[in-house]
Amino acid sequence: MSTETERRDEVLSQSPVGFIDLRSDTVTRPTKAMRSAMAAAEVGDDVYGEDPTVNLLEASAAQIFGREAALFVPTGTMGNQIAIRLHTQPGQEIICESRAHIVDWEMAMAAAFSGCQFRAVAAERGIVTWKHIEPAIKRPTFNNAPTGLISLENSHNMAGGTVTPLAVFGEIWNGAHEMGIPLHLDGARIFNASVALNVPVAVLTSGFNTVMFCLSKGLCAPVGSMLVGSRKVIERGRMVRKALGGGMRQAGVLAAAGLIALEEMPKRLADDHANARYLAERLSGLPQIELDLLTVQTNIVIFGLKERGKAEELVLRLKQRGVLCGTVGRNSVRFVTHHDVDRAACEEAARIAVEEIGKL
Fold it and tell me: Which cofactor does it need (predicted)?
């Protein structure tokens, strides 16, 4: 039987970076099929609308989401910020959950680029309902910044990958539409939410005016996100993308990987969810941590340490033993499963994590 060291070395030898990398699903490498497609991609100048592979990717995304049009952008942050610019006017508020990506991870661009501020509401497990939103809505007056946009997130990254059910969204859609307030979805991991809920993305996002989703996380494309919506909105979005420096030229080499990501990779996301659940269940009984298993619904595991201020120390200990992960604030640690970390790697990561947590 292999020793623990031999077992670890065997797992690490299969990793392209020599680590079990659970920092994020952004670290995924393009598959062999993606690399082949990129090498053979037909290209043109996308700023002129002449890249046939980009055009095909945009048409495919629009069809899958039941929309008129789609826009290929370099990053999810750019996609979100384009949507915010399209839906709002300077001096308005955006209602979102208090841990939303657009609040904490997008460099205050809603203020810098669109002149808007956030009206953040805290929701248990990140699941915002109409009861959270309605009291936060402000109509135009001479004193208050009026509500210009409601932006939600599914799955919710910093809430631990939790998903919002369709019925909850339905109530929000009805209320917002009655009040004439547009809705945007940060759907960076919407395919994870779709798999977890067993609801097609077109149905799960149907009430939003715009939806952004990433190709470069669990779907494994090397670069790129999509913004989908009406043809009129996306035409305006193309101009905003250019203003943000997102006008790419022969981008078909990237779109070719995106097509495979979009059409093939959602089929395997359930494996990532199962691996995240395995990690969470291995850790959940440890007395040193706090982990709500009800939040482990997709490919993200976030757990808190009962001894405060130890998160960075644990991350360093794990790195020294070949496992990469990240912190969420000073007291929590995050694992994210993905295509490049299989069950064997997750088993080894869990074994090492249990040992190191036990030393705290």
Answer: pyridoxal 5'-phosphate
Burial 253-276, CB ≥16 within 10 A → b, else e: bbbbbbbbbbeebbeebebbbebb
35 burial class (0-12, 13-18, 19+ CB within 10 angstroms)? middle
DSSP type of residue 162: B
Q: Over the stretch 86-128, which tens digit does the pLDDT of each residue have?
A: 999 999 999 999 999 999 999 999 999 999 999 999 999 999 9
Element (H, E) at 262: helix 252-264
Q: Look at the alpha carbons of 46, 47, 50, 55 in this order and tell me if their dihedral is positive or negative.
A: positive
Buried b (16+ CB within 10 A) or exposed e, 183-205: bbbbbbbbbbbbbbbebebeebb
The span from the CA of 265 to the CA of 215, in Å, is 9
pLDDT digits (tens, 9 = 90+) for 286-323: 999 999 999 999 999 999 999 999 999 999 999 999 99
The whole-model pTM stands at: 0.94
Q: What's the CATH code, domain 32-266?
A: 3.40.640.10
